[in-house]
């Protein structure tokens, strides 16, 4: 009979891990829909940034209370995986508490430590739920936080609470069975937190206790496999992708804009026409900026899949604060939704750009793009080193340079920069006139 359980367990494990790997492969090929860009420099600095920002959660600590709660969930989830290893081996080998003979007296200390982390995850997730639904925190109720993003966050929080409840109840039932001397339940010694459940369970008949222990064991591990399959469809995929995303993040100084080589060349030719006299004419005109995801690069798309929808960027965005439509979080969510849409269409044989839609206009409007002040506050605030401004810049370049849809005030400014070398309508020769009176004094 035990062999049936082992086979069932192996099938569930293979199906869950296989499905997860398949979906991650899909996301990878979606990210590669973006243009190629080489990010291969300053490797030591990149590893350091990943260690500090992704592993060390450095940027989270600008807001200490949510940071501590998030740290509890993060550490709990990572370290509890060691216990999952024991559960998986027990499931495959038909054993029970396989690590006990290896760890001996340390085993109850080890499980108690995991229970301490589990309690941290449990309490943090309950507080997160109360914050999300009980407190009027503006960033959780913004325009882009529609039914699905809210449901997604709730599903994950409730799943984590249930997983921890199953884990603690399983241990409590196990300890009670140990106390009753039931065969197959190794005498491990007490676990620090779940022993508190023993008085509640002590009165149950042995059959019911075994059922409860086995039910929680299966519910815990099946829940983890279900979680594994769900996460790539959710914003919680950031628990995996934020590591490579911070590694590949932008290392240039804040505010430095990437020049377009085509434009730089045009300007060089304007300054020195003879330099380009012998240069062959380009075969085709490159697209200025990006209208859709295939004109963004893979890092932009990786950013979109890394977004945790925390809204810290939108919280500090001056355009959003002053009531304008722009929300950098929505820019990231739209980019991910559009990438998913193009990916699904591609799998049906429709090439990128042939479905009649584009990221610019169909998802992100002109009004949103023009509201951005290029202040970089969103880039600075993002805890996983996402750069929403880079996507805004590319889309705005397309809007202005390809579609000529810039407001008249901007056109006047562009003309002034071209003619006067400054955004103001004064000739360069008058530039220092303001200082004449000052100098006389
Ligand atoms: S750079 Fe643009 S999107 Fe980002 S915070 Fe500033 S105004 Fe908002
Ligand atoms: S871009 Fe960064 S700060 Fe903004 S919602 Fe996504 S993860 Fe949060």
Structure report:
The chain has 441 residues and is mainly alpha-helical. The longest helix has 33 residues, at 147-179. The chain starts with a helix and ends with a helix. The mean pLDDT is 89. Helices cover 62% and strands 0% of the residues. The radius of gyration is 28 Å and the shape is elongated. It contains 20 helices and no strands. Helix 1 (2-31) packs across helix 14. The structure holds iron/sulfur cluster (2 copies).
Quick take:
62% of the residues lie in helices and 0% in strands. The chain is mainly α.
Provide the descriptors you would attach to this structure in a database record.
mainly alpha; binds iron/sulfur cluster; elongated; 62% helix; 0% strand; 20 helices; 441 residues
SSE diagram, text form:
Elements: H1 2-31, H2 43-55, H3 64-93, H4 100-103, H5 106-134, H6 147-179, H7 198-201, H8 206-230, H9 238-247, H10 261-271, H11 298-306, H12 312-316, H13 318-321, H14 328-347, H15 359-363, H16 366-370, H17 377-381, H18 388-402, H19 408-420, H20 436-440
Bound molecules: iron/sulfur cluster (2 copies).
What percentage of the residues does DSSP assign to strands (E)? Answer: under 5%
Shape: elongated
Ligand list: iron/sulfur cluster
Largest sheet: none
- Uncertain spans, ≥5 residues at pLDDT below 50? none
Q: Write the element-wise H/E pattern from the N-terminal end onward.
A: HHHHHHHHHHHHHHHHHHHH
Distance between the termini: 100 Å
Query: Based on helices, strands and strand pairing, what is the structural class?
Result: mainly alpha
Strand elements, count = 0
């Amino acid at each position: 009979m035990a062999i049936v359980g082992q086979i069932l367990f192996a099938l569930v494990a293979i199906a869950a891990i296989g499905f997860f790997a398949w979906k991650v492969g899909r996301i990878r090929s979606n990210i590669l829909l973006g243009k190629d860009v080489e990010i291969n420099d300053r490797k030591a600095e990149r590893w350091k940034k990943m260690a500090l920002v992704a592993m060390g959660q450095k940027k989270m600590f600008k807001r200490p209370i949510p940071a501590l709660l998030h740290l509890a969930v993060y550490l709990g989830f990572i370290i509890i995986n060691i216990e999952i290893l024991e559960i998986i081996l027990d499931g495959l080998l038909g054993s029970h508490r396989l690590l006990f003979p290896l760890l001996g007296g340390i085993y109850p200390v080890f499980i108690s430590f995991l229970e301490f982390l589990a309690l941290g995850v449990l309490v943090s997730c309950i507080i997160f739920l109360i914050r999300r639904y009980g407190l009027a925190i503006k960033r959780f109720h913004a325009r882009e936080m529609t039914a699905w993003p809210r449901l997604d966050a709730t599903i994950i929080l409730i799943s984590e609470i249930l997983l921890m409840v199953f884990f603690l109840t399983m241990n409590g039932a196990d300890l009670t069975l140990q106390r009753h001397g039931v065969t197959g339940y190794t005498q491990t010694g007490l676990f620090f937190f779940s022993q508190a459940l023993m008085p509640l369970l002590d009165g149950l008949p042995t059959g019911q206790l075994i059922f409860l222990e086995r039910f929680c064991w299966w519910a815990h591990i099946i829940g983890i496999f279900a979680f594994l399959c769900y996460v790539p469809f959710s914003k919680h995929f950031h628990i995996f992708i934020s590591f490579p995303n911070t590694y590949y993040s932008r290392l240039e100084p804040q505010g430095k804009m990437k020049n377009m080589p085509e434009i730089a060349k045009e300007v060089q030719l304007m300054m020195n026409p003879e330099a380009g006299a012998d240069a062959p004419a380009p075969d085709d005109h490159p697209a200025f900026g990006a209208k859709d995801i295939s004109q963004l690069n893979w890092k932009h798309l990786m950013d979109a899949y890394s977004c945790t929808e925390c809204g810290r960027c939108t919280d500090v965005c001056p355009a959003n604060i002053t009531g304008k439509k722009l929300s950098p979080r929505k820019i990231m969510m739209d980019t991910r939704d559009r990438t998913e849409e193009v990916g699904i269409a591609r799998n049906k044989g429709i090439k990128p750009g042939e479905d009649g839609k584009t990221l610019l206009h169909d998802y992100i409007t002109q009004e949103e793009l023009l509201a951005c002040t290029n202040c970089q506050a969103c880039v600075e605030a993002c805890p996983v080193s996402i750069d929403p401004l880079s996507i805004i810049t590319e889309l705005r370049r397309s809007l202005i340079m390809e579609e000529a849809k810039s407001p008249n005030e901007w056109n006047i400014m562009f003309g002034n920069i071209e003619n006067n070398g400054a955004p103001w309508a004064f000739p360069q020769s008058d530039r220092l006139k303001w200082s004449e009176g000052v100098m006389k004094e």
